[in-house]
Amino acid sequence: MKLSKKVWLIVVIVIFAVALGVLFSIYSGQNGERAQLNDRLSTAQTLLPGLMNNRETKEDELTQAESLLAASQAQFPESVESIEYGDDLFEIADDCNVSLTKLTASKPSSKTVGAVTYSVSSFNMVVYGSFDNILDFIYAIRTGDDFRLPWSAEVTGLNTNVSGGSVNINLIIYGYKG
Question: Under a CB-based contact definition with an 8 Å cutoff, are residues 153 and 171 in contact?
Fold first, then answer.
């Protein structure tokens, strides 16, 4: 079968039209994507200066927070024993039915007696309760009953508020460093 030149021309035109249609479709889709990407790029470029300023602000805040953390850490005792002593003191207060409402610890220091080195911590605490229970609390501290750690305490001062039912106790704790 022989096709005429007109048929071949129509076939070529149809193929060419289909190819143009496909190319136009692809071009239109990419042009739409390009428009969306340009919009997103311009939005990102608009937001970028604000985000950079926000980043710098957050970095400054981080630097200040790290500085504040370092300063705060310098104020706390380096030794863990004072925390453990505090736990013991709260446990003793609970056993003696008194409320330990304030506990302030100093930074531990060392004291050497002969060949033995002791960790020395001083505490100031405010205790509320009945007079008998407060005396039981002081006695329990002095005798060292039910302590988890091998330490001894010396009560160096008492200020009582009889009408308020509170006692301010100054305490020095000697712990064996081993």
Answer: yes
